[in-house]
Write a structure and sequence with these properties.
The structure holds 2 protein chains of 2 kinds.
Chain A: E1 3-7, H1 12-23, E2 27-32, H2 35-47, E3 51-57, H3 63-74, E4 81-84, H4 96-122, E5 128-133, H5 146-169, E6 173-180, H6 200-213, E7 217-221, H7 225-234, H8 237-240
Parallel strand pairs in A: 1-2, 1-4, 2-3, 4-5, 5-6, 6-7
Chain B: E1 2-3, H1 12-15, E2 20-23, E3 41-44, E4 51-55, E5 60-64, H2 69-76, E6 81-82, H3 94-99, H4 107-110, E7 117-124, E8 128-133, H5 138-144, E9 153-160, E10 162-163, E11 169-177, H6 180-193, E12 196-201, E13 211-219, E14 231-232, H7 244-257, E15 261-266, H8 267-271, E16 277-278, E17 289-297, H9 301-314, E18 321-326, E19 341-349, H10 353-368, E20 372-373, H11 383-389, H12 393-399, H13 407-412
Parallel strand pairs in B: 1-3, 2-3, 14-16
Antiparallel strand pairs in B: 4-5, 5-9, 6-10, 7-8, 7-9, 11-13, 11-15, 12-13, 12-18, 17-19, 17-20, 18-19
The chains are: A alpha/beta, B alpha+beta.
Bound molecules: flavin-adenine dinucleotide and NADP nicotinamide-adenine-dinucleotide phosphate.
Residues 21-28, 32-33, 45, 65, 87-89, 92-93, 95-97, 99-100, 102-104, 148-149, 153-154, 274, 376 of chain B line the site of flavin-adenine dinucleotide.
Chain lengths: 245, 414
Amino acid sequence: MSVVLLIGATSAIGASLVRALATQGNELYLVGRNAERLAGVVEDAKLRGSKVIASMPVDLADLKNCEELKQWISAISEVEHAIILPGVLSDELGTLAQWSQDVMVNFTVPSFLARTISEKMSSQSEGGHLVLIGSVAGDRGRQSNGFYGSQKGALEIYAEALRHRTALKNCKVKVSFVKPGFVVSPMTAELKKNVLFSEPDQIAKKIVSLFSRGRSGVVYAPGWWRLIMLLIKLTPNFIFHRTRL
Amino acid sequence: MTEVWWQDELQKPAIEGARFLPVGLGRSYGDSALLAEEDGVMKSISRAGRLVGFDDETKVLEVEAGCSLGEILKWCVPRGYFLPVVPGTQKVTVGGAIANDIHGKNHHESGTFGRWVVSFDLFRTEGGWVSCSKSENRDLFEATIGGLGLTGVLGRVRLRMHALQGEGLVEQETVRFDSLREGTEILSGLDRRYPMTVAWIDMASKKMGRGVAMGGRFVEGECPRSKRKGISVPFDAPSCLLNRSAIRAFNTVYSATRHPGVERLPFEKYFFPLDGVENWNRLYGARGFLQYQCVVPLHAISALSELQRKIADSGQGAFLSVLKKFGPLSSPGLLSFPMSGWTLAMDFAMEGAATLSLMKKLDGVVREVGGRLYPAKDARMSGEFFREGYPQWEELEKLRDVSITSRFWERVRT
Ligand SMILES: Cc1cc2nc3c(=O)[nH]c(=O)nc-3n(C[C@H](O)[C@H](O)[C@H](O)COP(=O)(O)OP(=O)(O)OC[C@H]3O[C@@H](n4cnc5c(N)ncnc54)[C@H](O)[C@@H]3O)c2cc1C
Ligand SMILES: NC(=O)c1ccc[n+]([C@@H]2O[C@H](COP(=O)([O-])OP(=O)(O)OC[C@H]3O[C@@H](n4cnc5c(N)ncnc54)[C@H](OP(=O)(O)O)[C@@H]3O)[C@@H](O)[C@H]2O)c1
């Protein structure tokens, strides 16, 4: 049983994670945007046997809200595991205003919260384990999904920086970066489903297993995406640029 | 198909104008959970399936209708409760269980699923969310149970659970019989001693009519949890695999391997043997199969033999055939399938016109004795036969949601 902080509890992957973590009987701190949905997730988690210590609705595109969230997190006495899930699929041809807001949700705020949480974990005698969610879309710039991919790619680099920072401090903080492939969720509602899609439960299971194995580093979910992305990264431009990927 | 992830997505502006059909996990065999693309969208609600609350005193569990029975069992068995009624698979939603007012091996003891539904919220295109129970909007409550999804979208459901004796271990007694007639007698006898009963019948080989009857009850004792992953059928089998002689052979082998006596097994194996084989339906090949499930009144036992004769004459064997006696407990559901009598469910490999013509002949037998077919498993019965078997259909039609229809309903209502 651990104390787990989950930001993005009302995402599809987040709700699956809450189910898995609650069934294990963990103590949960849950953050989501929509208060009503968050309340539903909290009820479900409690019934499954977890203590939900507190929950908080937050809009990550709202700076004031994010400051409050930071305060709320620092008030928690100890966070053993934390997961930061929120993300939006950017419109490749979005306006400047849209893009700026997307960067807040996909990159700036998750990075800031990751820093906040890792600092908190550094000060805990037992350290902690932080998981950030990226995407295979961040592995190579592609015309169809370039702006979303760039933000996830940037987040991956920041996760790497945090690993560097915690390594220097010699503290017991682990930072994992999970890159799901296609996942069935509201985010992909418009896409036609095929065999490459995974269920949110599969991704959740993978994340939970990271905690039990205490693994740091970059993880693909499911694991076979590592091979697919390797091939995509190795494809020379003269071929790649003829695809519509 | 679109998916509803959160119940708050069910709002007037989102629904209005477009025709649709709420569906669950798509475990119905026929076309009652289907809607042709040109007729509207299928909205799957199986993602909105959170647990909401449980009252120890009344044993009432509140869940969102998209919750699967398997998910509920995972939650309730360790806590000492069991679902009042389960079908032959746990991969169905509470919404689907209500819309077809499903029955299980304990029908003679507990009746249908709908009997255990205390109340629910229903989303209607006109009027939004309404609460339904025996005391509130009773007409909608009754029309929705067995209502084939036509009255609205089920939201939160309150369901009375059973206290579970033990940890989920089931004791099963197996008795063999050599003819249908003998089978019905043995089943009736087992019904008096066991809360769960069912019989498997050979409807394929030379020894047609023989079978095994099984009685089951929950007992105290440690329930072995099998960790082994189920097997999966990765692709459609060639159509020759389940040909007539294979079906005969299967029935012979099945019969030979069922030994009379008493054994103990975990409830998953007892209730859901097919769930262990992922995509088992692919064994039938690309043409698939048709289920035929009818019920005939108690007094019409001879109709069962008549059905057997018709099947024998056709030379087409049924792969899996199951016989069960429905008890007299009535359901609140308006269009509930079960009635006091005998129900026979059979799987036929689809052989085109020959299979359809056999089923037409079976229809004749069932109709003559005042029986009817199970809409959840039908893709072909005539509208006339349906309306005759379910005279209350007009009341359901009056309460149908203005935006909802299904392929089944369009087929049988005219
Ligand atoms: C292996 C197997 C064994 C079976 N054994 C039995 C058995 O023993 N007894 C028995 O009775 N049945 C049995 N069935 C049939 C099955 O229980 C029913 O078809 C059940 O309704 C399927 O539920 P579903 O969630 O898959 O719903 P679907 O098949 O997707 O839909 C079924 C109906 O429910 C409606 N519906 C679904 N969700 C909602 C909602 N939220 N609001 C309103 N309407 C909704 C749909 O419109 C449709 O009319 C079996 C099926 C299989 C595959
Ligand atoms: N689905 C995929 O194929 C896929 C693939 C790779 C990576 N991912 C990543 O996985 C994570 C979870 O996504 P998902 O697939 O589970 O989809 P999802 O259900 O759509 O989740 C997205 C989440 O982000 C939240 N969010 C968006 N904008 C927000 C804001 N301004 N403030 C607060 N929260 C905000 C949403 O909150 P609301 O609940 O309030 O809407 C929602 O919980 C995301 O980071 C996504 O990028 C998904």
